[in-house]
Amino acid sequence: MNRNIIAAALLFAGATVAGTLSTHRYGTCQQFDIPITASAQNSVFNLPKINDDITARSWAIKEDTRSTPRGAERITKNFTISGTYNIHAQLCQPHTRRASDILQIATHGGHYDSRYWDAELDPDKHSWVEAALKAGYPILTYDRLGAGKSDHPDAYDVVQAGLELDILRQLTVMARNGALQSATGPSHDSPSRIIHVGHSFGSFLTSAFIATYPDLSDAAIITGYVATQYLGAVGYSPWSVQYAATADPPFDRGPGYVLCQKSGIQNIFFAGDPHTAFTKEMLDYGDAIKQPVPVGELASGYKLVGLPGLNYTGPIHFMLAEFDFFICGGDCKGVTNRTALQGIYPKASAVELDIQPNTGHAFPLHNNATAGFEVSFDFLRRNGF
Asked: E strands of 173-279, at which residues?
């Protein structure tokens, strides 16, 4: 397609072209930057200033100390925040038309950006995007605020859960009215249905989204998250954090952005039998694409957890990794069940729970990733998607 047509379409949508079209095996993708105006009720949390490795590690230990205040106990004041933020995104269209009117919107978790969904390492085996395109779904991935090529504002008072939730809402509304589809040219219509997909903190957001805005989502895939007493119980010390701005290589971030060292990436994201679950190349890649995390996002995350989706009526699929250390304390078998999840979403048309064997928190970067992808896509097909 002529790039002038693409650029004109993006400018019409308020976006700017951020690169040439890229061809995947099963579709074509366009990266773009788009200004999103969002607002939320944020909080000022009593958090330490993090501006070097010493204060970063001290923060992690303090967070794990049993007497440290949690959640709302550490708020000093609440305030309304509103602003326009640059969000980097990628919209992919499949070669096949099987489900071309159904858009997936995938939200990544902490420590990564949208590349989590679209691995360049052996993508036929590790890219959710490639698998979605093969199954016929268009898919939108984006870098959450504070990550990747999106804006990196203040880590304490700006990048918080509520603001990120409103950004997801704005992206969804734009997708429904066709504004985002112009990124790949005027021939692509707005979707008739939207599937929201999340991983880890992205699943915090996705589950809160379908609970808060049930009419904006038609189906949901929740990976790497379930709200039980084991959620995050291992704490932040295993992350082996350092200060992002002075890491090797350094990141262009201000105070309050922390970064996992490679040992922390393995601790949190890779698990199972080290001889069969993942390879050294997968771990190296997972470390190479890591991103800093803003501490305000972490402090405010509790606002998203466990919200009941009383009016959500679509199907929802939960996928847990068998040996997820951060979500289940290293063993997800038996931590929840379908009955418990149905109680959270009593009007959902279908609720299913699966556990992906011999896998850690970073689902796509394990040897049996495609088997897990297929379980979720089979769930969608069986429920009319």
From this structure: 193-199, 219-223, 241-243, 257-260
